[in-house]
Design brief:
Layout lengths: L5 H4 L15 H22 L4 E2 L2 H6 L14 E3 L4 H14 L3 E4 L16 E4 L6 E5 L4 E4 L5 H7 L5 E2 L10 H7 L6 H4 L2 H4 E8 L4 E3 L16 H5 L7 E9 L1 E2 L3 E8 L3 H13 L6 E5 L1 H11 L8 E8 L1 H17 L6 E3 L2 H12 L1 H7 L5 E8 L5 H14 L6 E4 L4 E8 L4 H20 L15 H8 L1 H14 L17
Parallel strand pairs: 2-4, 3-4
Antiparallel strand pairs: 1-2, 5-6, 6-10, 7-11, 8-9, 8-10, 12-14, 12-15, 13-14, 13-17, 16-18, 17-18
Helix pairs in contact: 2-4, 10-12, 11-14, 15-16, 17-18
């Protein structure tokens, strides 16, 4: 089958920023015919006002926060309940019309682009917190509920949901991409915090991955269907409910910043803190370039050296012990005296600077765009990969501040690039591939938390090997035989 990619053949091959919506003229014509026949059915299911053909609405739902080109769907629907999602999916399955689930569009690997057209299921109207069990520390939410909205809802209960990827992502979207973030070193990622999922399969069947209404803290019953769908990026089904673990809000929180003369010293401190059993909540690494950018953007004055941002949760008594142990360890590794943040306002300021790293990086080159790529390696390999990565950036004249969830061995390069400079884009593309392969050579992964989406499909094949990919493809074929669920993501298109 010949695919219309005339433009991309003239551009650097395989660079994700140039990935186009790919379909033949025959496919486009067939989709148009299907669309004409299903529109009235869509409107009868979810109402006239919840079906949109508007260009602006379609473009809004054809792109996430990545550099991947906008690939708008043919139509956007806004279902209001799982029954409507199921009915819409049955229609799409019957007509073999692609389905792309959409939460808030905060993904970073092109996961929502309609590369084969089709219908976008925008789930924002399903925004209820359904069941809160305070005594059991769990809650069930619909896909329109974001993490900030949930924590606002929980404010007076003494509970919170700590998984924090930075963006105010939808919780079901976070499950679909296996999100994590700054708190993962203590509280885990979405994989550890999802108890049950309600999923609409490609043919409209509704399943509950741990059984309808079940919410045990652990189980050894059957296959782990829940984690099959966590991280599936909409390629196996549409997540319409998730039951999540909650945690007690800590009695006290303390944050600190500590600078080091070298990356090795900062990472050695991290490893020793974890080895000492300190239940640290957050431990974030920023390299000298990133610290300099944050200083300029946020009006700070931290030393322009490798730096750790730390946060401790617990009782006042336990915090004192955690802090003393950590301070001893950092001093033994030539760390500076801690700059403390005890009250909520100062702590929020400190972490705002960390969360504003994206905008701080962009400010280094006004008018440019940012592309974030991430890898994850065993902790012991972290100094080596960061040093090699910084050397690579300098050698290839690239701007790429580094920020990382160092307690997990996961770090991000925030590539700042001129989107109109094809030669620079090509250098960035080659760099990101080298970075991922460097991580794989160190027994790591090509993505710690962003996901595969469009840009890392080939790297996933290298990471997992042909037999594991074959098993994944078999699961995809079993659950989605017509390949209507978010086609083109995670798995490479097969030759026909």
């Amino acid at each position: 089958m010949v695919i219309s990619l005339t433009l991309s053949r003239r551009l650097p091959s395989r660079w994700p920023g140039f990935l186009q919506c790919y379909s033949t003229n025959t496919e486009s014509s067939a989709r148009s015919a299907v669309l004409d026949s299903v529109l009235s059915t869509f409107r009868s299911i979810c109402g006239e006002d919840n079906v949109s053909l508007g260009e602006a609405v379609r473009e809004q739902h054809g792109k996430d926060e990545s550099v991947h080109r906008c690939c708008p769907p043919d139509v956007v629907v806004f279902p209001r309940c799982v029954e409507e999602v199921s009915a819409l999916a049955k229609v799409c399955h019957h007509h073999r019309f692609p389905i792309i689930p959409f939460g808030t569009g905060t993904g970073l690997e092109g996961g929502v682009g309609a590369v084969k057209g089709g219908v976008c299921f925008s789930l924002r109207n399903m925004d209820r917190v359904l069941d809160l069990h305070q005594e059991d520390f769990d809650v069930t939410v619909e896909p329109g509920v974001t993490r900030k909205a949930l924590n606002a809802y929980l404010r007076d209960t003494g509970l919170w949901f700590p998984v924090d990827p930075g963006a105010d992502a939808s919780l079901c979207g976070m499950a679909a991409t296996s999100a994590s973030g700054t708190n993962a070193v203590r509280y885990g990622t979405m994989r550890e915090n999802v108890i049950n999922l309600e999923v609409v399969l490609a043919d409209g069947t509704i399943i509950h991955t741990a059984g309808n209404g079940r919410r045990p803290r652990k189980t050894s019953a059957g296959y782990n269907l829940t984690n099959l769908f966590v991280g599936s990026e909409g390629t196996l089904g549409i997540i319409t409910k998730t039951t999540l673990r909650l945690y007690g809000i800590p009695e006290a929180m303390v944050s600190a910043v500590c600078s080091f003369p070298s990356i090795q010293d900062a990472v050695d401190s991290t490893v020793q803190i974890l080895q000492a059993g300190v239940p640290i909540a957050r431990i974030e690494f920023l390299d000298d370039v990133m610290i300099d950018a944050c200083n300029r953007f946020s009006g700070l004055s931290y030393p322009v050296t490798p730096t750790l941002f730390l946060e401790f949760h617990g009782s006042e008594q336990s915090l004192e012990e955690q802090v003393n142990t950590t301070e001893d360890i950092t001093h033994s590794n030539r760390g500076s005296d801690f700059q403390w943040a005890r009250d909520a306002e100062t702590r929020n300021q400190l972490w705002k600077a960390r969360h504003d790293a994206w905008y701080a990086a962009l400010a280094l080159r006004p008018g440019c765009k940012a592309y974030a790529t991430d890898v994850c390696v065993p902790l012991s390999r972290l100094p080596q990969i960061i040093v090699e990565t910084k050397e690579d950036l300098i050698e290839n004249r690239l701007t790429g501040p580094i920020a990382g969830h160092v307690g997990d061995g996961n770090f991000h390069c925030l590539m700042v690039v001129d989107p109109n400079n094809a030669e620079e884009l090509h250098r960035v593309h080659l760099f990101t591939e080298r970075l991922a392969r460097r991580a794989l050579a160190m027994d790591g992964t090509c993505t710690g938390e962003h996901g595969v989406g469009l840009g890392k499909r080939a790297l996933l094949c290298e990471e997992m090997g042909p037999m594991a990919i074959q098993v994944m493809q078999g699961l995809k074929d079993a659950l989605d035989p017509y390949n209507v669920m978010n086609p083109g993501k995670i798995l490479q298109p097969r030759e026909l």
